[in-house]
Amino acid sequence: MKRRWKLMLVCSIPALGFSGLAVAALVTFVADGPTAEFWFPTKDSDSTMSAWGASLAYALVAALTFEIARSVSKSADRTGPSNGEDPPADAR
After folding, report:
1. Rounded CA gap, 54 and 35, in Å?
2. Which residues contact 85 (CB under 8 A, 6 or more apart)?
3. How far apart are CA 11 and CA 51, in angstroms?
4. For 60-88, how does the pLDDT look when each residue is reduced to its tens digit (9 = 90+)?
5. Confidence (pTM)
6. Which of 7, 62, 81, 87 has its CA 20 to 30 A from that of 36?
7. Helices (H), 1-92
8. 32: CB partners within 8 A, 6+ apart
9. What whole-number distance in Å separates Cα of residue 24 and Cα of residue 7?
10. What's residue 33's pLDDT?
11. DSSP tag of 43
12. How many angstroms separate the CA atoms of 5 and 38, rounded?
């Protein structure tokens, strides 16, 4: 169980970053109105897009990354105890 939570925390770090970017884009949109622009990384790295679109895109990526972290950490419990951990009490 400990391994699952550790893996979940580590895998969630990028999702937390994307969540922060989504909030920053939303704040930009609210503060500057519908014509607000927000930096969005592209091939040229100098592109901007509308703040509401950037907020939605970052929120979508954050949600997907959280789901990937959850599903990856779920499989950590099935692999057995790691080195130094005791097996679960209900193991047969």
Report:
1. 13
2. 2, 3
3. 26
4. 999 998 888 888 877 766 655 555 666 66
5. 0.66
6. 62
7. 2-11, 13-32, 51-76
8. 51
9. 27
10. 83
11. S
12. 34
Q: How far is CA 40 from CA 16, 51, 63, in A?
A: 17, 9, 18
What value does the mean pLDDT take over residues 8-36? Answer: 86
pLDDT confidence of residue 4 = 74
The rounded percent of the chain whose pLDDT value lies above 70 is 72
Check residue 55 and give its pLDDT: 87
Which tokens is 85 given?
């951990």
Provide the b/e sequence for 47-60 (b: ≥16 CB within 10 Å).
eeebbbebbebbbe
Rg over CA atoms, the chain: 19
Name the token pair of 19. 């969540």
- Give the type of residue at 89: A
Provide the 10 A C-beta neighbour count for residue 40: 17
Q: Which of 67, 73, 62, 65 is nearest to 26 (CA)?
A: 62
